[in-house]
Specification:
two-stranded parallel sheet; two-stranded antiparallel ribbon; 6 helices; globular
């Protein structure tokens, strides 16, 4: 996304990063990534409730990802975080309409930048 930041600005797109982790976890993320966009902390997970579902988390595609990892010899480890937290991208137009809703199969899975830009370019002026 950072490589295309100028293009997003030219298209008048505001980017906001949302996390469910507050305090030291959020601070470390900002420091390690050099995040320049606003970071919103949603500890109550109200945005997740609005844009996610347990089916997307524990459904067939998620099970398939873990099955492939296990088949390659990867061991699953107990997590200390919220296992329901998946990466996702939501494009909301100036009228509040959701124009793209992408839920990743894991915390770092993102849609192609070309898809985001194509969707933005097709929005009504």
């Amino acid at each position: 996304m950072r490589q295309h930041e100028t293009e997003f600005k030219q298209l008048d797109v505001n980017i906001v990063v949302v996390t469910f982790e507050a305090g030291p976890v959020a601070e470390t993320y900002v420091r390690q990534t050099g995040l320049s966009w606003p970071l919103l902390v949603d500890e109550t997970r109200s945005l997740y409730a609005a844009y996610g579902s347990d089916w997307e988390i524990f459904g067939p595609s998620s099970v398939w990802v873990y099955a492939k990892l296990l088949a390659r010899g990867r061991k699953l480890h107990k997590t200390s975080g919220d296992v329901r937290q998946l990466g996702g991208d939501v494009l909301i137009d100036p009228n509040g309409m959701v124009r793209l809703h992408h839920v990743g199969s894991g915390p770092a899975y993102r849609p192609a930048i070309s898809l985001l830009l194509e969707t933005i370019r097709t929005l009504p002026a």
